[in-house]
Amino acid sequence: MNVEQGLEDAGYQITTKGWLAAYAQRVDAARERYDQAVQELSKTDPMAGFMMEFTNPFKEPAIQEVTDEDIRTSDTDTAVYVLARNSGEGKDRTPAEGDYELFESEKAAIRTICSNYQKVVVVLNVGGVIDTRFLRETEGIGALLLMSQAGNIGGYALADVLTGKVTPSGHLATTWAEKYSDYPGAESYGAQNGNVDDEYYSEGIYVGYRYFDTFGVAPAYPFGYGLSYTTFSVETERVSVNGNLAEVLVKVRNTGDVYAGREVVQVYYSAPEGRLEKPYQELAAYGKSRLLQPGEAEELSLSFRVESMASYDEASSSYILEPGTYYVRVGTHSRDTKIAAGLTLADEVVTEKLAEMLKPDEEFRQLSSRDAVPYTYAGEAEEMEHCEKQAISSTAIETYEAVYRTENPELLKTEKEHKITAAEVLSGSASLDELVSQLTVPEMAELCVGTARNGLGSSSVVGAASTFCPGAAGDTSCIMIEDRDIRNLVLADGPAGLRLEKSFTEADIQKLTAQNAPGEDAAGVPDTNSSGQTYYQYCTAIPIATLLAQTWDEKAIEDAGDIVGEEMNELGVNVWLAPGMNIHRNPLCGRNFEYYSEDPLVSGKCAAADTRGVQKHPGIGTTIKHFAFNNQEDNRMHTNAHVSVRAAREIYLKGFEIAVRESQPMSIMTSYNLVNGIHTANSRDLLTSIARDEWKFAGIIMTDWGTTGGIEMEPGKTFKYGTSNAAGCIRAGNDLTMPGKQEDVDEIIRSTGAKEGEVICPITLGDLQACAKRILKIVLQSSAYDNASVYDEIK
Are 171 and 333 in contact (CB under 8 A)? Predict the structure, then answer.
């Protein structure tokens, strides 16, 4: 439901249909020219033609002029101008007009509109941040409304807000800067400095509001900012510490007299400076009130663990709480916080003892706040001096010490000679270890590689390599279905709902491989004996991740996941390749719309809520991605992210950790890029030591599509950094290489039991068994079987 339809269904008459139709014709003509260029390129090189859609995607043309005749025939005093932007996978945005900046034609149109209408609303139908200077400086704009990209009923949602049927309650999950150059590292991000091979995370821990607040840079709209049709007061009633839990009790009151509304309350902390630098403040907890009528109040209890205020010390590979006063701040956005209490710690406390991981491959200069002048406000010093102080008991804080598994997994063995089946494992008469021990190396290699075997054609590239569910991204192997009844998983892409073919015919059905008995549905596909029918797979387009995060409402996000989970069950999908949860490091990242926030706490909480919503349906699950440092789309398959261990731990991995610990997603997907010289898909530090040993992740890990090669964004080009290796994936604990190709299977087979120097990456039989076992455990727990309730019982 687009904006025009939503407003018309709400009772509005659109009086500029002629202007809208003229622009639609302009877009259609530009699209036709673009498609012709793709087709011409595809005649000589089909892959190059397809890749053009990634590396040089279609962009909507500039708008035409708003004329005096357009104004005269509109016959109204109210104008709603919708400004739209799109971005996507494979290409980053640019700080140029028509993208981050406004077209000159857009500025001219808005000036004309503001000069001729009494009431003007500008709606931002955008997936990411844009420059709002012109909009904030132009007289006559009565309201600026961030619609974001709201899914298939977005038009209705916008109409409800514009009419006042619903009071807006969203708050930003990312800082909107005064101008692009205000972002840290703006000039060196991605292609901005001409180097897309090596990306240096020189801002360190100072990402988003952590940078703007620490370095005193005023944003256009701060992190957490949001307006309403009513007003609220937020009063901190009590801050207390009980053991290792800090609780903040606040009273939220609707102080308006017309509209009901909801308010978001955010709790931050400011850690004391010590030998480690600290940001000005960091988000610790947040909550949202229920719908409050005018004059009505509600108490919210917001809590956080004291350990969550710890900083990562690279020298000791530990998280530490340095002695001093930790100031607790409460507000409705990052530039609205006031000090509510001071929590004092007498001695340094180690909260986690870890091992050295992700060691940087080269030194590079990082931003320091030692001489920075942070943001402040009138009365802050007095608040620090006079706030209530409470002592943190160091003895109440336990030290977690990670235990890492041995380098070589123990070989699985069994004395049973008959072929163990899935039914025996599900019934408990045989163990999964025993079944895996019977598998041959070729069988396990097939299992650990997706089912695509003919290279990566265009259908695989866009995530449509499944033979069981039309349009799904891929499948796991079912080569052992006849002798062991080991079925396959169907994996469908996101990011905002399921991405499937919306319809297919009988001819399409004949191409599918059925795993169910004759006459039954195969992954939601009707029996092929039917004739002359078209089948439909309509799926809900939920809001993009950035919009979901802007609700600051975990229940709403869980409900969105519930919608996806219900449709997965209906259509025979086992694994949803979402949510994406990389950090909004820079506003030009082409896939920021797929990701939640610049803040790891918000990102982790949102992903956990999404996962809970999906996984309340037994036997299906989510895939949190892209693990990790997927903050750049240009040259995404060959870029090396150089990042400090502290920034990695505190910013880029923390959200994934929260999601794993709070919701235990079914799977994790690795990113294409390298981190500190090693492909994430081949990083044992990242996948085994951090995800499994430190965080206790219990699901499967898979690659992104084409990680091991065969899908080059720029065919024929030689890259500084190559691709990952299928055997290296097994060695790292990356269980499933997707969507699969025969070369991956062959690489795993010849590398198993090989010696150093014989192959690129020798692996042991135990390595391969460990990956096969994890895949089979998820398969047996999945909705591919009727008894998905045995999820936690498979050993």
Answer: yes
